[in-house]
Design a protein that fits this description.
It contains three helices and 16 strands. It has 215 residues and is of the alpha+beta class.
C-alpha cells in the first residue's frame, strides 16, 4: 500500500512538473513582445493613473503600460527639445486632478501631456532650471516643481519661484509634499524646511545644524 501511494505521488509531481514547463506558443510570443518594448535603462518613477495604466519615468523617455504593451509616449508624440543630446531622460511623472500628465526631465524642463499633444516648459517660460527632479500638485490645484534652481509653483498661467533668497536651505529641491494642515515640506540638498504660504522655516537639530535630506 505504501508503494502504491508513493508511486501515485511521483506521478502527480511529474505531471505538475511537465505542465509547469509547458508554455503555449501564443503566451511565449506575448511575453517576448512585452519585454521587447519595456524600458531597458534607469527607471526613476512609476505611478498608476485613474484608468489603471502604469506610467514609468525612465532614462529612455516616459512609458505607458496598459496591461499588455509598453508605449514610449515621449517618443511617439515627439516633443520639442531644448538640447541636442541623444537621450530623453525623465525623473518623475504625475497625473493631475484634470487627468493631464506632467513629466519632469533631467535637462529639458517639464512636459505637459493632455492625451493628444505635449507642451514643453523651460527656463524660457519661467522655470528656474531645466533640470527638474519633482512634480507635485497641491490642494489648490497648483503644480509645484522641484528643480536644481529652486522650487517653482505654476498656477496655470505663470511660474513663481522660491530659492534661498526666500528662505530655502538650498536651491536643489528634490522633494515636495503638502501635509494635512496645508503646510508644505521641501527636501533639499541642504536639509528640510517647511512653508506655511508666507514664511519658510528651516528645521534644525538641537545644536543648530540643518537636518540633512537625501533621496
Amino acid at each position: 500500500m505504501k508503494h502504491i501511494n508513493l508511486y501515485s505521488l511521483l506521478c502527480v509531481v511529474s505531471l505538475h512538473f511537465c505542465n509547469a514547463q509547458y508554455i503555449p506558443e501564443a503566451i511565449k510570443n506575448s511575453i517576448s513582445e512585452t519585454k521587447a518594448n519595456a524600458p531597458q535603462r534607469i527607471v526613476r518613477n512609476i505611478i498608476q493613473d485613474r484608468k489603471g495604466n502604469l506610467w514609468i519615468a525612465t532614462h529612455e523617455g516616459v512609458f505607458r503600460y496598459d496591461g499588455k504593451t509598453f508605449t514610449n509616449i515621449t517618443l511617439e508624440v515627439a516633443p520639442p527639445r531644448v538640447d541636442s543630446g541623444p537621450e530623453n531622460r525623465f525623473y518623475a511623472v504625475i497625473e493631475d486632478r484634470d487627468g493631464n500628465f506632467w513629466f519632469a526631465s533631467t535637462d529639458s524642463g517639464v512636459y505637459f501631456y493632455d492625451g493628444k499633444s505635449i507642451r514643453n516648459f523651460t527656463t524660457a517660460n519661467g522655470l528656474p532650471s531645466n533640470r527638474v527632479h519633482e512634480i507635485y500638485q497641491d490642494t489648490s490645484g497648483n503644480i509645484w516643481f522641484g528643480s536644481m534652481g529652486g522650487a517653482s509653483r505654476y498656477d496655470g498661467k505663470s511660474f513663481q519661484t522660491f530659492t534661498t533668497e526666500q528662505g530655502l536651505p538650498n536651491n536643489n529641491v528634490i522633494e515636495i509634499v503638502q501635509d494635512k494642515t496645508g503646510t508644505f515640506w521641501f527636501g533639499t540638498d541642504g536639509g528640510i524646511c517647511t512653508y506655511n504660504g508666507q514664511t519658510f522655516t528651516i528645521l534644525k537639530d538641537e545644536v543648530g545644524k540643518n537636518f540633512s535630506y537625501s533621496k
